[in-house]
């Protein structure tokens, strides 16, 4: 697949559905080799398979971005499989429980902040 990302390797987090999946597919259409990372294993594998079926190159790596070792593993898989990493599309995020902030548990708050803010700004 030729395009503006030909020869590039892109890692997309939250790639199993929604914006992340659409972005992974778009990178592939533009020629990138894509590493899809997500906690949704079945959906992530299916998205990677769709890229391969369309003629692109893609792998899926089960990844919880709130765990630094898993993010590091996804990066390492990109390098091991494709020899490099050029683009990181840090898309993973969660909504958490819809409720007033005062009703939010500390555990829920910490998880939402860890995934939506901390990982992409400090570790991303």
Tell me what the structure shows.
- It is a single chain.
- The chain is elongated, with a radius of gyration of 15 Å.
- Helix 1 packs parallel to helix 2.
- The model has no long low-confidence stretch (mean pLDDT 90).
- The two termini are 28 Å apart.
- The longest helix has 18 residues, at 106-123.
- The protein is of the alpha/beta class and 124 residues long.
- It has a domain at 9-93: NAD(P)-binding Rossmann-like Domain (Rossmann fold), CATH 3.40.50.
- It contains 4 helices and 4 strands.
- Helix 2 (41-53) links the parallel strand 2 and strand 3.
- Strands 3-2-1-4 form a 4-stranded parallel sheet, sandwiched between helices.
Produce the secondary structure layout.
Blueprint: E1 9-13, H1 18-29, E2 33-38, H2 41-53, E3 58-62, H3 68-82, E4 87-89, H4 106-123
Parallel strand pairs: 1-2, 1-4, 2-3
Helix pairs in contact: 1-2
Condensed summary:
This protein is of the alpha/beta class and 124 residues long.
The helix content is 40-55%
What is the correct CATH architecture of the domain at 9-93? 3-Layer(aba) Sandwich
Number of strands: 4
Shape annotation:
elongated
Features:
Rossmann fold, four-stranded parallel beta sheet, 4 strands, 124 residues, alpha/beta
